[in-house]
Amino acid sequence: MGCCGDDDDCACRPLGFLLGLPFAFVALLLSLVGVVIWIVGILLSCLCPCCLCVTMIVELALGLIKAPFSVMKWFTKQIPC
User: Fold this and answer.
1) What is the domain range of residue 68?
2) Phi, psi torsion values for 37, nearest 5 degrees
3) In Å, how far are 11, 19, 26, 32, 62 from 76, measured between CA atoms?
4) Does pTM top 0.90 for this prediction?
5) Mean pLDDT for each consecutive 10-residue tract of the chain (81 residues)?
């Protein structure tokens, strides 16, 4: 049983979490930029829904918004039990 109570071994890795915090903070700042880009992209796609580049910009913004979670997952997986 892992330290978090589930059956996945090494489910909790506090060292990876702590090491990833500064990078997650930078990713959080990037996600705020992603939110602004996403809002502008949604407004532009409402004005011109046929424009493919606006859709790609919105997808990029969604990736930036999800960045802090991806960074924390990656860091916690890199630290062995």
Assistant:
1) 22-78
2) -60, -40
3) 9, 9, 17, 23, 22
4) no
5) 50 71 82 86 79 78 83 77 63
